[in-house]
Hints:
The chain is of the alpha/beta class.
Amino acid sequence: xxxxxxxxxxxxxxxxxxxxxxxxxxxxxxxxxDPQPDGRPLLQTRPASLAAPFPMAWEQEETLSxxxxxxxxxxxxxxxxxxxxxxxxxxxxHAWREMLESYFHSQDPEATLVFLQSQSPGPFSADQVRILVxxxxxxxxxxxxxxxxxxxxxxxxxxxxxxxxxxxxxALGEEETAHQLWRQVAGASxxxxxxxxxxxxxxxxxxxxxxPFKVGLLLPLSGPSAQLGQNLLHAxxxxxxxxxxVPLSLEVADTRGEMTATWAAMDRLAEQGVRLVLGPVFHAPxxxxxxxxxxxxxxxxxxxxxxDVTQTRPGGGLDSGxxxxxxxxxxxxxxxxxxxxxxxxxxxRHAILNRKLRQVAILAPKSRYGEHISGxxxxxxxxxxxxxxxxxxxxxxxPDFSMAIRSLAHLDEESQRRRSGAAKRAPRLxxxxxxxxxxxxxxxxxVDFEALFLPARADQVRLIAPQAVFYNAGPPHVTLLGSALWxxxxxxxxxxxxxxxxxxFCDTASQPREQFDAAYQxxxxxxxxxxxxxxxxxxxxxxxMLRDExxxxxxxxxxxxxxxxxxxxxxxxxxxPNGESLRDYHLYHVTGNGVAYLAGPPPMTAxxxxxxxxxxxxxxx
Length: 621
């Protein structure tokens, strides 16, 4: 399939050796086996390279079901029902994708020449074109622009890079620049597939107008959450404008945030002939929509994170084990949502594996969200060999967190009685010491943990951190760990963050998120809600599946679970066989100058490879 594998063996191996010296990650290509005597490569089972970024904040408390248990490891359903392909074809696709990723993430300009020389003459195959466009779409605009500038005049990949660069410019509202790039690509005789795609983006495809692909959109457009519903509708319309070359139409229905209205909305959408439904947001409507979708065999991608939504059977009720159909073709239900579980796993892995901290404590809000994310963090900590010494909650209604923090420092009434009875009176701290204790007791604060997981809002963290330091439960003695709820620059940069120095939290990649927020503000003159990204990504994923199908890829019904995922407003999003979506969370830390990038997403293999291993992070991130 790849032209690379039809060149003479000796020359091909020489090219790979050269690439290994220039391209980061090309060492994986060196490990490829020599061909068999008949010229076919030896087959091996290797996971596709994955690289991605994760989400910004937890949706809203209402999106959780009333009784949330700590998450069990996600079940893996039956494999996708994608058409069977030969092992040779799959191996060649994987090799081509890895070669592209290695080249795209190289910083050496000489790698361009080596890469181009490794390709035999002639046009790329349809599969090579599709993978080339997919892989380039995950690059940021600046990196993609540098790659375009490095291409020689005769480069056969330059038109495809320019095509994707135009897509990124258009998404940022730079329409004139995007059209200039597409017009250049439209005249590229060496890349006919890229030229045809550019003409479609320019509205000059020269084809009969295709029948629009109808997508249903379930949102709370009236009732107490009407403002949120309108915000999500704007984000979906923004995605529709960014993929104008794809014949999509949105059929919007109001759920009012209720189950009864959701049932009626699903009836209307089915009558209108939609082929896929996006939404709703809240748990009860999502359950109702999933129930109706299964009855009708209608694919559903909801914005709610609760796994029981994917387990709803026709007629209602739950059953044990994975029940989600393996593909959209069979009416599968998928969750395009931000999962607090994933944030908890990332932070637990950072504390136990990266920082080698073994004793951790948890202080979380007394809410369904707080209990859910705390349970996931504790479970992963224990699985990795750590120990949870304290688990305390604070009331979100009260701005006074002293009782919970005193409990962490063993200064609550019960701890004081126990400590007073077990030991002699401890010497009083120097009253001038800023880390002194309450004068009502002679007991000093005592903590038995090295890290404190604090999955609270940024405004709450700013009030908790100074008190934690006062009782020796914060920096520099204890490392503070946070969730994506911390990432509020306005609050983190206000006075009082000196107590957060060295604290670490996770969030999605900042660049795509900030670009989405800026484009949304420009289009609608209002800030985007934290959930607007889900509506944008839902439409974007459908559009990308249809683009893939147009480029000769598999039908849209079976491509949702493609291992490389889809670029979205928070970075890469992948859909797993159990119905969950996976976004990558990067690590950030608080410094004297504000918030700084710390590290890329850690490798995750929990739940039977639900979180696939990733290659080395790109130096351009």
